[in-house]
Design goal:
Order of helices and strands: EEEHEHEEHEEEH
Number of strands: 9
CATH topology of one domain: Heat Shock Protein 90
Helix content: 25-40%
CATH superfamily of one domain: Histidine kinase-like ATPase, C-terminal domain
Strand content: 25-35%
Shape: globular
Structural class: alpha+beta
Oligomer: single chain
Largest sheet: 7 strands, antiparallel
Radius of gyration: 16 Å
CATH architecture of one domain: 2-Layer Sandwich
CATH class of one domain: Alpha Beta
Length: 177
C-alpha cells in the first residue's frame, strides 16, 4: 500500500521537491502538494494513475483551470513504469503531485534511486523514424510532446523526472468531453 504524507502548502511552482510537513491551509497563490511512496513493482503504475485522477479531480472540483487528467495519468504511468523497469528495486518510488496556483495546472514528479539521467528529454531527430513495432522508446517522446515543460534533476537519493501541465478552462474541458 502506498505511504502518503498529508497535503501541504508550498509556494514553489518551479521544478523541485514540494515541501512536506504538517498539513496547513494553503496561502493564497500557493500550490498544494502530496508526496506518496509507491511499491517498486509494476503494481505501482495503476496505483499512480488512480492517485493522479483523484488528486486532479476530487481535490479541487470547483476549480476552473484544471489540467487534463487523461494526459496527466498517461505521462505519470510512463514515468512510474520507467522507474520500475530501469532501477534496481532499491528503495521505493515516490510520486509528488503539486496543484499549481493561478492560472492552474499541475507539476508531477517521479523520484527513483538511480542517479543516471533518463534518456533524452529533447525532441528526437525528425529524420529518424520511429519503428511502429518497437515496444520501448516512446515514453519520453510522449512526455516531451504532451507536457508544457519537463525535465529531470538529481536528488539526494537518485533523480526526479518531472513534467508540468497547464490548467484547461472549464468551458474548453466541457466542449472536449
Amino acid at each position: 500500500m502506498p505511504e502518503a504524507t498529508r497535503p501541504t502548502a508550498t509556494g514553489r511552482a518551479a521544478p523541485g521537491p514540494p515541501a512536506t510537513g504538517p498539513g496547513t491551509a494553503a496561502p493564497a497563490g500557493a500550490a498544494t502538494s502530496w508526496r506518496v511512496r509507491l511499491p517498486h513493482t509494476t503494481a505501482a503504475v495503476p496505483i499512480a494513475r488512480a492517485l493522479i485522477r483523484t488528486a486532479l479531480t476530487d481535490t479541487a472540483p470547483g476549480t476552473d483551470d484544471q489540467p487534463d487528467t487523461d494526459t496527466a495519468e498517461l505521462l505519470t504511468a510512463e514515468l512510474v513504469a520507467n522507474a520500475v523497469e530501469h532501477t534496481a528495486g532499491t528503495g521505493p518510488i515516490e510520486l509528488v503531485v503539486a496543484l499549481l496556483p493561478t492560472p492552474g495546472g499541475c507539476q508531477i514528479e517521479v523520484h527513483d534511486s538511480r542517479p543516471a539521467r533518463p534518456g533524452d528529454l529533447v525532441c528526437p531527430d525528425p529524420a529518424v523514424g520511429v519503428d511502429p513495432w518497437q515496444e520501448h522508446g516512446r515514453g519520453l517522446l510522449l512526455l516531451r510532446a504532451l507536457s508544457s515543460d519537463c525535465g529531470h534533476r538529481p536528488t539526494a537519493h537518485g533523480k526526479a523526472v518531472w513534467f508540468t501541465l497547464p490548467g484547461i478552462p472549464a468551458q474548453r474541458r466541457r466542449r472536449a468531453s
